[in-house]
Design a protein that fits this description.
single chain, about 375 residues, alpha/beta, eight-stranded mixed beta sheet, globular, binds nicotinamide-adenine-dinucleotide
Length: about 375
């Protein structure tokens, strides 16, 4: 019988076979050993593709302490990583309270570098009075970058390279990775049809744009809610309907949030949502929909499959929630396509190498991926695509 760890290892090897950019980096950095003597504290979704990157970092000399995000950790991958000597905290069943403890456990390893997701590690580090060894790090998401730039502005005394600001990641992963995988997760979770169905997408950043464009390409009727007039104009020019939040809630059958902000759909608006509507989120945190209020307002809730819960409201109306409001493509699907993650994770590895080698020369606080790293990864990906 195959053990959990063996199953995880098989899936990691399979993903790696489609990740040529990371494979090439592994060979280069094994010789170079840029992370020798360094511990990297990591918070990132734990699945086969991120495990491939962990293998590259370890081969490049790093010791790793790792945790995932609530709802997306894959237990067979955790088992396999543990067998290869990576310290991993967390499991599939983790909720937000467990996540906080896991983050503190990762930081207890006194890492020199942080690879963060949603600013979880940096925020906990800042709130702690313990001395630390961190010289710099990276941040994967827009949500984390927003927190670094707003709530933690001026408080971070080491450089943090924001991977999601890379034009490469925006094009390849957010738009062409998240878009189709959110649509695929919707199809497999609900078994419903997309053509002709009325979808509202909240937010027309690269993630919302990808979801809306792929839905539109499959002949859905797509409405966009976007407060920024420039992005709203772009959506209109892409041939999509524009609406206010209230009109979109009232007139659509599927409501998908991708704003990167809390409370895009708030409690006082639940009354507008039509009977049978389906709610889903693609943004980093489930806070985009006020889920506590949804649970409070419901008379009962029934789970119809692993990723679908139906709430019956006091007026008899039924509202379904997919994947508990966690990122639909990760929590109810396979996550972003392997090739898009090859690119994003290569940006991570090269940015961490830069921090390991030259943190003191970089300004403190959030900053973009340097253009030379973007170009290097773009060239490697182009080469891989043309093979
Ligand atoms: N699911 C995934 O695999 C995945 C991958 C990458 C990023 N993300 C997450 O997706 C989210 C969006 O990322 P992005 O890069 O597109 O962000 P972005 O900031 O570029 O775009 C978000 C858009 O939402 C709009 N917005 C803000 N509040 C709104 C509201 N209340 N209603 C409607 N629109 C609103 C903003 O004006 C902006 O145009 C982030 O949380 C990011 O971390 C998810």
């Amino acid at each position: 019988m195959t053990t959990n760890a063996e199953q995880g290892a098989k899936r990691i090897r399979w993903a790696e076979s489609y990740m040529p950019v990371l494979r090439a980096l592994r060979a280069e950095l094994t010789a170079e050993q840029p992370f020798a003597g360094k511990t990297i504290g990591i918070c990132l979704h734990i699945e086969p593709k991120t495990a491939v990157m962990c293998g590259v970092l370890r081969a490049a000399g790093a010791a790793l302490a790792l945790t995932g995000s609530p709802g997306t950790t894959q237990d067979d991958v955790v088992a396999s990583l543990r067998e290869t000597g990576t310290v991993v905290y967390g499991s599939r069943s983790d909720r937000v309270a467990d996540h906080d403890g896991n983050i503190r456990s990762v930081l207890s390893h006194r890492p020199h570098l942080l690879l963060d997701n949603g600013a979880s590690l940096v925020q906990t580090l800042l709130n702690s009075s313990e001395p630390h060894n961190v010289t710099g790090g990276t941040e994967e998401t827009t949500t984390g970058a927003n927190l670094l730039r707003e709530e933690m502005k001026g408080k971070i005394h080491f450089p943090v390279i924001v991977i999601n600001d890379s034009p490469l990641k925006v094009i390849m992963e957010n738009e062409h990775g998240v878009g189709p995988t959110v649509v695929a997760a919707f199809l497999s979770t609900t078994n419903l049809m997309v053509p002709g169905r009325r979808f509202a997408v909240f937010g027309y950043g690269s993630v919302g744009r990808g979801i809306a464009r792929y839905l539109h390409a499959l002949h859905a009727r797509v409405t966009v809610v976007e407060p920024d007039p420039i992005r709203a104009l772009e959506a209109a020019l892409d041939g999509l309907q524009m609406a206010s939040c209230d009109a979109a809630l009232a007139n659509n059958q599927v409501l998908i949030t991708a704003t990167g902000r809390a409370n895009a759909i708030t409690a006082e608006r639940f009354g507008l949502i039509s009977d049978g509507a389906i709610l889903a989120n693609a943004g980093h945190y489930s806070w985009e929909i006020d889920l506590t209020a949804l649970r409070d307002a419901a008379q009962r809730s029934d789970r119809v499959n692993a990723s679908t819960e139906v709430f019956t409201m006091r007026d008899g109306k039924r509202i379904s929630l997919l994947a508990g409001g966690e990122m639909l493509n990760l929590a109810a699907g396979g996550g972003n396509p392997v090739e898009t993650m090859d690119l994003g994770l290569a940006l991570q590895v090269l940015s961490l190498r830069l921090i390991a080698q030259r943190a003191r020369e970089l300004p403190p606080g959030p900053q973009p991926v340097p253009m030379e790293i973007n170009r290097q990864v773009a060239r490697a990906m182009l080469e891989a695509l043309s093979r």
